[in-house]
Amino acid sequence: MNTLTARRRTIWDALPEPWRAPAIRLAAAWLALIVLFLPDWADMADQWWNASTYNHVLFVPFIAGWLVSLRLPQLRKLVPRAWWPGMILVVGAAMVWLLGAFSGLNLARQLGAVALLPASAVALLGPRVALGALFPLAYLMFLVPFGDELVPALQMITAKISIALVHASGVPAVIDGVFIETPVGLFEVAEACSGVKFLVAMVAFSAFVANLFLKSWRRRVVFVAFAIVTSIVANGIRAWGTIYIAQSQGLEFAAGFDHIVYGWVFFAVVLALVLGISWRFFDRAADDPMIDAEAIERLNLGPLERGTARPLILLATFAAMVLAAHAWASAANAQEADVANTVLLPEVPGWERVAYDPQLVWEPKAEGARHRLMGRYRNADGRTIDVFVAVYAEQTEGAEPGGYGQGALDPSTGWAYNGEGVAVPDARSEMLLGNGTAGRAAATFYRIGETLTGSRTAIKLAAMRDRLLLDPRAVTVLILSPETRDPQAGAETIKDFRVATGPIGPWLDRIAIGE
């Protein structure tokens, strides 16, 4: 018998008899779930490996496994049992995945695919084992690559912290959204400088430390909140430091300094600071067990005690439900709405079509759209407005009108988000700045059925409704964008153009059907 075989037999022999069959069923279920949802797992793995924001996620499976090993001596004292109420969590996770598949929202698909792992563990092992392994199971949710949605808000927060510190340090500066102008040059708090990768890593790290070293739930919450705030403030200080150094050493030296500091070295310093300040408040002794199996066994779970299932019947039900979700998604994604073969930008009273000649080339991103239209209009006052229309026959992965990185701001171009614009009815209003000089106001409208909205969430919910009912409807995206750095002037131009078109909803409907 070789060493590996002997080690496997030792692990198997160490499992109490009541645990052996449930452990096999759980392992088989997890393997089947990963294979069935392999495209989602492959997308996540690609982000873990290739996106620096999510490199820390590579450690999550090992951390979760280690946390289980710490609990194993106590978990072995509990008796696993298949449990029907656990299927509620399975159904919920499958629905999250299904809604993500319907709307083309990858985050929801990935969240559902990952959530099926702890949900199936609860169903196959029962409530008492789930309580004993609650934190490791919940920690698996950090496998989901989240955080990109926070980038615009974090950019603005970092910019505000930086400008406050710049002024406090006696450097004259002017802020315009995420751009800070000082005597030596213009600085941009770009997406890469938002601090999102440190924030999401800090959330995962602080949750792990809080569970490992703190017993009090109040202290855990305070510690995680402190770690999050410290991460955000530290990133603002880092951005200020780069700007401050540039005033005396020049832009090139400051850029080099920032590249050295802005990495895992910076994150390590912040971690050391958080741990150094919090260490004296840690209240779990080194020899304290992570869970108390006897206390869990004594718990009166009330109605939750009922619902014991035959394992194979529960497993079959679980498989049927997950396969049904896949079949439903496949049927919905096979359908698409009818759209015209040809669409054109119409004439607008009081505005004439003119050549598109921008100060800086701007083209919204509309991946997966069936049609894209771009044109410039000018009125008698000489004011111009650029009009972009995209018509989608479906909302699926790769065709996401409300997806991150889609719309007025293409992150791969020289344009950057520069704050919210003046409110425009039924639209999302934002200001853009290109190469530090060219400005734009942009109002984005989404049209589906009778709904006209600027909300990405609303358009996603409408898509989910359509897919659930197997009733696809076309989505039309309209972006109105005058060239200006004055939010009020941009809003006035957009308002005047809307008055000339008449109600935007019907106007877009006529474009979508080719009238």
TrEMBL record:
The lineage of its organism: Bacteria, Pseudomonadati, Pseudomonadota, Alphaproteobacteria, Sphingomonadales. GO terms for molecular function: peptidase activity. The chain crosses the membrane at residues 21-39, 51-70, 82-105, 125-145, 157-175, 195-214, 221-241, 261-282, 312-329. This is Exosortase A. The keyword Membrane applies. Residues 319-503 form the Methanolan biosynthesis EpsI domain. GO terms for biological process: proteolysis. Keywords: Cell membrane, Hydrolase, Membrane, Protease, Transmembrane, Transmembrane helix. It comes from Alteriqipengyuania halimionae. It comes from the Bacteria.
